[in-house]
Amino acid sequence: MGKPFPWRDACILAWCQFTSAFSFTVLFPFVPFMIVDLGLVDDPRGSGLYTGFLISASQLGKILTAYCWGSWSDRHGRKRVMFVGLAGISVAMLAFGLADSFTVACMARFLGGASDNIFGAAKTLLSESMEEEHQAKGMAMLGSAWGFAVIIGPAVGGLLSQPAAKYPRAFSSTGLFGVHPYLLPCCFTAGMALLAVLLLQFVPEAIATNGIHTEPPRVDDKDAAEEESGDRGSERQGLLAEDEGSRPPGSDSEQQSQQTSQAQRHRRQRYWLLERKPVLAVAACGVMNCFVVADDDVMPLWAAAPRGSGGLGMAAEEIGLVLGAIGVLMLVCFTCFAQLDKALGTLQAFQLALLVFIPAELLTPVAGDFRSGQVMWAWVLGIGGLKGVSMEYVIIGMGEARTVRALHHWLRSGSA
To answer: What's the pLDDT at 226?
Structure first.
């Protein structure tokens, strides 16, 4: 009988991933207005170029440092990378909220992204410490964490930005949050990151650091634990690590076979970018995330644009309500994804999600053509729910589960 699903560890890792994604999406509603306050443009509708630079600065930092953080985590542990990322989020968000120029705001976003490799570290830590039968559910939880952040982040950002204007009884126009109208949502995000740091202390490090397994395996039988530690000590290497472990001495033929196996694994871990299977898995995951991020960025801007220009003409509160309703639907559907993966298989579930997502994406702009507000709301909620369920949970969660499985199985196998 396998181990029970580690709900505590999975929930903490999901919270860390939620915090990282939240720091990216919380600024969507107020960045156009922040660009105006910084004196770059006079109308929020003309802030698209600056908004794009500001939002993409953090992603540029992640791209430039992701491989380095992955290699560093192989040597020093996934949790240390996550601690650095959470601390970077706290500092970067506070600096962003206090920024008085576009340059400072971009630097804060870039540094926050450069220090944040929580996504990769959390997924790798989960896959290394969880039984394969539970990985679909665990990866779906991490994927759903991103989905919830996309839903909740913009709503919180819209509610907490410019608090002196929205809540004059609670916040003074001459106080700290009146002088810096976008600091409050940034402080809220920094507090979430600090909470994640405290919770992460309870998650064990389940990797081989410098070739030595740092945590004992969680099994009840002592003999089985000793056998399992011997088997896994040299197997649980990171995605980028080199095999530095050693096997117990035996006959010359056994040693030669072991050395050959280690050399093959060493080569596969070093040159995995030259092989077909892992490259296809990573490329598929990257393309999916590209579409997801693009759709998430455009959605609030499209909803806030005037109806005469093809938008929905929604206020910030209405956008938050729509996104919140979609989030509730995603939460309800979350419970069936592990069963879907088990019934159809990861690849088939992923293909089914694409078949749902593509027509839903093509039908989304039709909402602006309805004259009736009720029909428009029903259309947005229905199509948005289909997109949210397929895109955020199945495509991201199960798609990345397939990526991690493909890499792990390929790196540990003896043949291409």
So the answer is: 47
